[in-house]
Design brief:
Blueprint (H helix, E strand, L loop, with lengths): L6 E2 L7 H6 L4 E7 L17 E5 L21 E4 L2 E5 L6 H16 L4 E6 L21 H22 L8 E3 L28 H4 L4 E3 L19 H9 L14 H4 L12 E5 L3 E7 L2 E4 L2 E5 L15 E5 L2 E4 L15 H18 L15 E2 L1 H4 L1
Parallel strand pairs: 2-3, 2-6
Antiparallel strand pairs: 1-15, 3-4, 4-5, 7-8, 9-10, 10-11, 11-14, 12-13
């Protein structure tokens, strides 16, 4: 959703902030929102008490390296629902968000609170404050990560200072893999295939670190699949909040998080959509099935340098099945050796098409709910 978008989160949907409000939590978001930039989609109208940050991605501004002049208006910085700056100094974003987070923790220490600290970095364009500039051997990208690491440390220190660290469920995660076309301004997917903008594991598989002393045993590791959609019902269970009456996609994964012996994913399967409503794949246990599709790739070429991206090309894959326990790099298509698995996963894909829809097969989806729309666009 960009600055000209007339849609956003529907008021009938329930955010995590609205969920915890049932139990009297203070709520704040500092950083990136990206669920609609029009006033009716403001975080303050969807459960958050405080908002300081950008309404969409930090590259949606006049200095975008690939956009024609005039594509993007000035980038607004919001404090609540008021624009307090245009095209803010992005070198100060990580520090300013962190300061607001620390202040919120200090002010909220006597009551339960939910803090959503959504750093814009390391999304491009990359910026870092002077205190971390040139601090790593990885260049600007490394410096940016060093500052994010500092931010996490500052939040942890604030929890300890206020004697809250043993009472706080702390989750550190990201939304997608590296934007490989940006080369030295992007991360690495390591052994995983491809990166952001694809549903190969390099695009969707992310590290996640959770901490809650006394609740999550130290060194707990799970190789069961999980998704951020599962955080919502998990927190609902932990605080005794009611889930919304409408269907949600997440499941309670607390047994996985808590390291309970033999804990398995409660999901029948996870589904991978792209381009809003293109159903491209499914993961169940060790198996990941892809439908025939085109995907973007550097195809072995290096990415760009210093903020100017390299060019992708479009590659194709046929129907493909991978054993993710044995082949995390997704190199060997074993669909021919496991026709029964393929058939079963295709059946599950048919079910989700009927529910959520799929533009590739022109399935409408009986369970799809509409986005919110600004009043002038709705009329």
């Amino acid at each position: 959703l960009g600055p000209e978008s007339t849609i956003g989160i529907n008021s009938n949907e329930v955010t995590l902030a609205e969920l915890v409000k049932q139990k009297g939590y203070a709520t704040a978001i500092f950083g990136k929102w990206h669920l609609g930039c029009q006033p009716e989609f403001s975080p303050l109208r969807h459960g958050f008490d405080e908002f300081y940050g950008l309404p969409y991605s930090n590259d949606m501004w006049p200095n975008h390296p690939e956009a024609k002049k005039g594509t993007y208006p000035d980038l607004p910085m919001f404090d609540g629902e008021k624009v307090v700056a245009l095209n803010p100094d992005q070198a100060q974003l990580t520090t300013s968000y962190t300061r607001r987070a620390l202040d919120f923790i200090d002010r909220s220490k006597e009551r339960p609170f939910f803090l959503y600290l959504a750093h814009n970095m390391p999304h491009v364009p990359l910026f870092v404050s002077d205190k971390f500039k040139g601090k790593t051997k990885r260049g600007l990208y490394g410096d940016v990560l060093e500052e994010i690491d500092w931010s996490v440390g500052q939040v942890m220190a604030a929890l300890r200072k206020n004697h809250l660290d043993r009472d706080t469920f702390f989750i550190f995660a990201s939304d997608n893999g590296p934007w490989l076309s940006y080369g030295n301004h992007a991360g690495s997917a390591g052994p995983l295939r491809e990166g952001k903008g694809t549903v190969w594991d390099g695009g969707v598989r992310e590290p996640c670190i959770m901490r809650w002393p006394g609740k999550i045993p130290a060194h707990t590791v799970t190789d069961e699949p999980a998704m951020t959609i599962d955080i919502f019902p998990t927190i609902a269970r932990l605080i005794g909040a009611d889930l919304p009456p409408h269907k949600i996609d997440g499941k309670d994964i607390w047994p996985l998080i808590a390291g309970e012996p033999g804990a398995k994913s409660p999901q029948e399967a996870y589904y991978f959509y792209y381009n809003v409503n293109d159903l491209l794949g499914i993961r169940q246990g060790p198996w990941k099935l892809y439908v025939p599709q085109e995907y973007r790739s550097l195809n072995g070429r290096p990415g760009g340098t210093n903020g100017i991206p390299g060019k992708y090309e479009m590659l194709k894959t046929d129907l493909a099945l991978y054993d993710m326990h044995k082949d995390i790099s997704e190199k060997t298509n074993v669909a021919g050796a496991h026709p029964d698995v393929v058939k079963y996963l295709q059946k599950l894909l048919g079910g989700i098409r009927a529910d959520l829809g799929d533009d590739l097969s022109m399935a409408k989806g009986s369970g799809r709910r509409p986005p919110g729309r600004v009043a002038s666009a709705a009329n």
